[in-house]
Design goal:
single chain, 392 residues, alpha/beta, Rossmann fold, Argininosuccinate synthetase, chain A, domain 2, five-stranded parallel beta sheet, 14 helices, elongated, binds arginine
């Protein structure tokens, strides 16, 4: 029998895939769960489900550090946000795909399977990376068979596949964020029920006292909180914890998917919001107006590339180089105030600051105001001409 490696999360879609691949595709199934910082039970459960459903072999692949260093840090440097979404799922998919390709090579499998439906973005993200790195056949059983969630549920019951307990939402969680879709959330006018959230406190339960945080960056990479140096993984976790406690990081948006469908998306992304806000504040201090302006355009393009699953497009690498070069001066500290769901920048400093307090000060005389008069006099010369000539 042909061997297939299935990217396995232990959720409904991928659990159903194990059986479908065995029964309908007549393949030997190797399952693999890639750890990108999902909760412990989402690492343990796949192993036990794989065992119960009967996959040939199951692998757990720890990719957490790579996820932070090669993906999350790039996203911070780029201030990557797509339509208000800080790209947690979108950033993890290419890495998961890379790990699965590696495993397929090691196992001598000539097919790779994933549990994506035909309506979402992840099918693009997985398959573009798989195809750019291997010649494996790609199988998407749920999409191939055009299955609905209810049909999947029935099939699962009929062949004794254990279902995740009480999951009415479709949730994807990793270190950079938690995405919640489906069920009551599909009506865009319905307020997300409190049970959709788990990383962020409702405002009523947040501390009454505000908390100040100082985040330090070195070349665009956050490395300490309140002067305490932290390992990358711990730093991100701690930011999630602190900001989440203050009710920061809930996002409710209508998002434009790759295929054009609009979808209602709920996210919890406390660390992403905190760190990107701080990072932007530091950039304002050290980058020139021209860099900031172009940086914004580059950031939008970068975010779209990530969202669209084009990780291996050379433009992504080109932009990473641009950002890396700009980040040479993004070193310094940013002070933030967290209180009742609000996040405010209250201070920033850097050895590369372009802010000249002496010159901008009202008390300064070194910059002779009179010299600027000539600059002002002819400012807007075209608008003046237009008003005088064309508006008569
Ligand atoms: N809309 C987001 C994206 O395309 C999140 C998808 C998360 N999946 C989920 N089952 N909730 O990246």
């Amino acid at each position: 029998m042909e061997k297939v490696v299935l990217a396995f999360s232990g959720g409904l879609d991928t659990s159903v895939c194990i059986k479908l691949l065995e029964e309908k595709y007549e393949m030997d199934v190797i399952t693999a769960c890639v750890d990108v910082g999902q909760p412990r039970e989402e690492i343990d459960r796949p192993a036990s489900v794989a065992d119960e459903v009967g996959s040939l072999k199951h692998y757990t692949i720890d990719a957490q550090e790579e996820f932070v260093e090669d993906f999350i840090f790039k996203a911070i440097k780029a201030n990557a946000i797509y339509e208000g979404y800080s790209l947690s799922t979108a950033l993890a998919r290419p890495l998961i795909a890379m790990k699965i390709v590696e495993l397929a090579k090691k196992e001598g499998a000539n097919a790779i399977a994933h549990g994506c439906t035909g309506k979402g973005n992840d099918q693009f993200r997985f398959e573009s990376v798989i195809r750019s790195m291997s010649d494996c056949k790609v199988i998407a059983p749920i999409r191939d068979l055009n299955l609905t969630r209810t049909e999947e549920m029935e099939y699962a019951k009929s062949c004794g596949i254990p279902l995740p307990a009480d999951k009415h939402y479709s949730i994807d969680e990793n270190l950079w964020g938690r995405a919640i879709e489906g069920d009551a959330l599909e009506d865009p006018m319905v307020e997300p029920p409190e049970d959709a959230f788990s990383w962020t406190q409702p405002i009523e339960k947040t501390p009454d006292k505000a908390q100040d945080l100082t985040i330090e960056f070195e070349k665009g990479i956050p490395n300490s909180i309140n002067d305490e140096k932290l390992f990358p993984l711990d730093l991100i976790s701690k930011c999630n914890e602190i900001a989440g406690m203050h009710g920061i990081g809930r996002v409710d948006i209508i998002e434009d998917r790759i295929i054009g469908l609009k979808s209602r998306e709920i996210y919890e992304t406390p660390a992403a919001l905190l760190l990107i806000t701080a990072h932007k504040a530091l950039e304002q201090l050290v980058l020139t107006r021209e860099e900031l302006k172009f940086g914004e355009i580059a950031s939008n393009t970068y975010s779209e590339i990530i969202y669209n699953g084009m990780w291996h497009d050379p433009l992504r690498e080109d932009l990473d180089q641009l950002f890396d070069n700009m980040q040479k001066r993004v070193t310094g500290q940013v002070k933030l105030k967290l209180h009742k769901g609000s996040l405010r920048v209250i201070g920033r400093k850097s050895p590369y600051s372009l802010y000249q307090e002496e010159v901008v000060s009202f008390e300064d005389k070194a910059l002779d105001q009179r010299e600027i008069a000539g600059m002002v006099k002819h400012y807007g010369i075209q608008a003046a001409a237009y008003n005088k000539i064309c508006k008569k």
